[in-house]
Write a structure and sequence with these properties.
Shape: elongated
Radius of gyration: 30 Å
Structural class: alpha+beta
Oligomer: single chain
Number of strands: 19
Distance between the termini: 25 Å
Helix content: 25-40%
Length: about 325
């Protein structure tokens, strides 16, 4: 499954610190093998972290003022002492100001949920400038959103806070230690702000994370075959290894293409098919055996994640596909 680069990069801080699960690591590393931009982003992040940890050496040499008179020397010492004291007060005040944190108000935080590939990630973005957030985990599936000021001129990769979990199935979640834990339908994730508390059903997060996403049109190859009995078969084949496709009938003459990751099989083996049984040019036979007359405007609608495509039944009858899609 091709995950969004933004979701993968959101997991990098935890990945570098070794806090992500083995399954999350596999998804991240599979994505890195295919995405050069994310590999470079991760390398830059690691390099900057190493540089921040290196001590800065002050090479400025201090020379004594041996030839100054005692009175002049006293003035210099007093001036230098005052400057040092002033710098100390400024530095101490900065630490007190920028070092403190507080529980954020809900109106100052924008929360979004990314859920796919079995991983649900909650992202908390600050609405105010020069602020950063942190999600502090507590007991009983509780997190508190903490806000603080960003230090001026300090390099900050991301002011957002994140909470994520990996679901094995609709009843099981993987813990930080890699152990699977069961959860019940009534369990919730509690998010604490200064002004209110919000709850999210863990079961709903699992459903969103485990739901097979709608396929992107660029990741699907569509083919068409028509036999001498008037049956037209549309084939949908994944462009990605280890991904299978499924066709969902979502309405009259309307289908949706979903994908799911199974890690097995070649793309040609993991295709999905949709058939139209023509009796003649203007009539089709439905799945229940009844016949339906076609109008000149009738089309088959195919829905992808990024676009919707329409194919007229007259094109299907002729055994041709629109655009640059090749006939199978």
């Amino acid at each position: 499954m091709k995950m969004k680069c933004e979701v993968i990069r959101d997991l990098f801080p935890s990945y570098i610190d070794g806090l992500t699960s083995e399954e999350s690591n596999e998804l991240i590393e599979e994505h890195l093998e295919e995405c050069r931009e994310c590999r470079e982003y991760l390398d830059d992040m690691k390099e900057d972290i190493v540089q921040e940890d290196q001590p800065v050496k002050n090479k400025e040499a201090v020379k004594p003022f041996r030839k100054l008179r005692q009175k002049t020397r006293r003035k210099i010492f007093l001036t230098a002492g005052g400057a040092v004291l002033a710098c100390g007060l400024i530095f101490g005040g900065s630490l007190l100001y920028y070092g403190r944190s507080w529980t954020a108000n809900s109106e100052d935080v924008k929360m979004t949920i990314e859920a796919q590939g079995g991983i649900a990630t909650l992202r908390f973005a600050p609405e105010k400038k020069n602020c950063k957030l942190n999600a502090e985990a507590g007991e009983d599936n509780t997190i508190t959103i903490v806000e603080s000021k960003q230090v001026p001129f300090a390099k900050t990769y991301n002011p957002n806070a994140y909470w994520s979990c990996t679901f094995i199935d609709e009843d099981t979640v993987m813990g930080i230690d890699g152990q699977n834990m069961d959860f019940s339908e009534d369990q919730v994730l509690t998010i604490k702000y200064k002004d209110r508390t919000e709850t999210i059903s863990i079961g709903e997060l699992a459903s969103q994370a485990l739901e097979n996403p709608v396929a992107h049109s660029e990741d699907v190859e569509m083919t068409l075959e028509k036999d001498d009995k008037g049956t037209v078969t549309l084939g949908f084949f994944p462009e990605l290894m280890g991904v299978s496709l499924k066709v969902e009938d979502t309405g009259e003459n309307q289908i949706l293409i979903r994908q799911y990751y199974d890690g097995e099989g070649e793309p040609v083996e993991n295709g999905a098919f949709y058939t139209v049984d023509f009796i003649d040019e203007n009539t089709i036979r439905l799945s229940d055996g009844t016949e339906r007359e076609l109008s000149q405007d009738d089309v088959l609608t195919i829905e992808y994640e990024d676009k919707t495509e329409e194919i007229s039944f007259s094109d299907l009858w002729e055994g041709s596909l629109p655009g640059d899609v090749q006939e199978g």
